[in-house]
Design a protein that fits this description.
The protein has helices at residues 3-13, 37-44, 51-69, 72-82, 86-93, 98-105, 116-125, 134-155, 161-164, 242-251, 254-301, 315-337, 339-360, 364-381, 389-406, 413-429, 433-485, and strands spanning 174-176, 184-190, 194-205, 210-217, 220-227, 232-233, 239-241. By secondary structure, the protein is an alpha+beta fold.
């Protein structure tokens, strides 16, 4: 059967399915070129057109191309042809192709420029090819989804080596990690037309490997939860070697995983509470403004107050009463609904303040041990291991010093200065004179910068602490008084 007849048969097989996601082929969109008389005359050399006319024609063509690429079928073709999710990109890059087969079966063959008869023999050794059919496509999709699940397990350190150890060879050597917050992504969305939209990551849910993404749609912020296979990153993300992930999975602590999941759940709860609180405050502010405008209209109209025994209402007065009653009912509902998210926000705020106060009073030993532990974890996860023990100890100390410097400005500068002085003196005393002089010279050059950073951070921390504490107290008192008064 020829290639054209096979393609027609596959196209006929998908006519019954109206879903675009199940199409086997995405047709290349056609762009009809309309010949411009001005440009045609200029090309034939009949007359030289002015630059303004050529510039207008070029702008017109650019606008036509821009409108053409903004069409839904063009956007979908661009997504299917040129874009891959960060998960599929890693899986497809390590797929078993003809180059892998040649390297495994014919390792002594150095060239790929072979005669036709040689290629026929190689193809015959590969066996009979499977027919390209909808059943084959369905099987490939099932296999791709299975590999996605395994890759997600590697990302979350929950890979079962006993059950899926045979499929570990199909995984990439460098596993892409979960996307960080504020990572820029692109996705194909129906809002309401099919188009490509840029967004940034807000939150990650490890249960179903989905991301909460913030998109900019017609000047408004929109939050959507999408799976990882529908997100294409604008820049290369962070990856970890497969060997280090498997080593960490053996030494992983279930208590740390549970604490990590609980922290993710608390951050998601805080985000939901903040969104609800923002919406309710907007409704409340709009209602209060409406009541204020109603009072101003009443004073401007000069309408007199009704008598005590007057039972007849004018249409204008009846309209104002209904409007006032509607606003009061809305305020009552908002005040009832705002209590729950406000309680969640207050709880997280108190926890954040207690953690900040605890960090300010951390002892020297605890602070040093935390930085030392982080440095050991980084050295353990590094792909290149130091060969000698002296080199490993030097790298470990320098990494510890880096984490100590990152603690500058957190409100514990007195303890940190003493720790760094002792650490640097021990570092210099433990090495030979040549290496000691080199490291001491570098530390001497950075000492004025360190003192300047400590001074600035101390002043800024004191100023920000006073201002923020005052603003937070005033804001909380204002909100609580509004709730108590029913405003």
């Amino acid at each position: 059967m020829s290639k054209s007849s096979a393609t027609q048969r596959l196209l006929r097989s998908q006519k019954g399915d109206k879903s675009q996601d199940n199409e086997l082929f995405v047709k290349v969109p056609k762009f009809k070129k309309r010949a411009q008389s001005t440009s045609k005359g200029a090309l034939d050399g009949q007359e030289e057109l002015p630059d303004s006319v050529l510039k207008d024609a070029q702008q017109l063509n650019n606008q036509r191309v821009y409108k053409y690429l903004k069409q839904p079928y063009c956007q979908r073709w661009i997504w299917c042809e040129f874009m891959e999710s960060f998960v599929d990109k890693a899986l497809l890059a390590c797929a078993y192709d003809i180059h892998s087969y040649m390297h495994a079966c014919f390792p002594q063959l150095q060239t790929r420029q072979l005669p036709r008869r040689a290629w026929q023999l190689i193809r015959r050794s590969m066996g009979k090819a499977r027919r390209f059919s909808p059943a084959f496509i369905d099987a490939e999709r099932i296999e791709l989804e299975r590999l996605r699940c395994l890759l997600r397990q590697l990302q979350q350190r929950s890979f079962n080596l006993e059950q899926d150890g045979e499929l570990l060879a199909l995984m990439p050597k460098f596993v892409p990690q979960a996307l960080a917050v504020d990572t820029k992504v692109i996705s194909l969305l129906h809002l309401p037309l099919l188009s490509l939209y840029k967004g940034c990551i807000v939150d990650f849910d490890p249960k179903d490997s989905s991301y909460l993404v913030k998109f900019d749609y017609n000047g408004q912020q929109m939050l959507l939860r999408l799976p990882d296979c529908l997100l294409c990153t604008l820049h290369e993300g962070k990856t970890l070697p497969l060997a280090s992930i498997m080593q960490k999975s053996d030494d992983s602590d279930p208590a740390q995983l549970s604490s990590f999941e609980s922290s993710i759940g608390s951050s998601e709860q805080l985000l939901d509470a903040l969104l609800k609180l923002q919406k309710l405050l907007q409704v409340k502010r709009k209602t209060v403004d409406d009541m204020a405008s109603m009072n101003e209209e009443l004073e401007a109209s000069g309408m007199q107050l009704p008598a005590r025994r007057e039972t007849r209402l004018t249409p204008q007065r009846e309209k104002l009463q209904r409007r006032y009653a509607t606003n009061m009912i809305m305020l009552h509902r908002v005040n009832v609904d705002i209590l729950e998210p406000l309680h969640v926000v207050h709880t997280h705020l108190s926890e954040h303040e207690s953690n900040a106060q605890h960090r300010k009073h951390v002892s020297r030993n605890e602070l040093y041990e935390n930085c030392r532990t982080l440095a050991e974890l980084d050295l353990k996860a590094a792909s290149l291991k130091p060969e000698s023990e002296a080199t490993r100890e030097l790298v470990l100390r320098l990494q510890t010093l880096l984490y100590l410097c990152s603690e500058l400005g957190n409100g514990n500068n007195v303890e940190l200065d003493a720790i760094m002085d002792d650490f640097l003196s021990n570092l210099l005393d433990s090495y030979p004179s040549q290496l000691r002089d080199a490291i001491g010279g570098i530390i001497g050059l950075l000492q004025p910068l360190r003192e300047h950073i400590v001074t600035l951070s101390r002043k800024e921390a004191e100023r920000c602490e006073v201002v923020l504490q005052f603003d937070v107290n005033q804001h909380l008192l204002h909100e609580e008084s509004d709730i108590d008064m029913g405003l």
